[in-house]
Model the fold of this input.
Amino acid sequence: MADDDLHDLMSARAALDKKRLSWAQTIAAGGDDGAIKAIIEVQQAIEVINIAIEELEEAELEEDLEEVEDEDG
Done:
């Protein structure tokens, strides 16, 4: 299940990366203030997903460590 969760988070992050690039291109072309607000919101979402990815990876490492410790003893 954790692998599926990680895959979903990575997919969501990739989609947000594309949205961020699109908004950056809009801003570069002289876009309006709405584009600036949108890119800030997308960046915040990316940061939240990055934290979720880190937490999931840490949980997986802890789980793996517990399994090794159980095997050893």
In short: The radius of gyration is 18 Å.
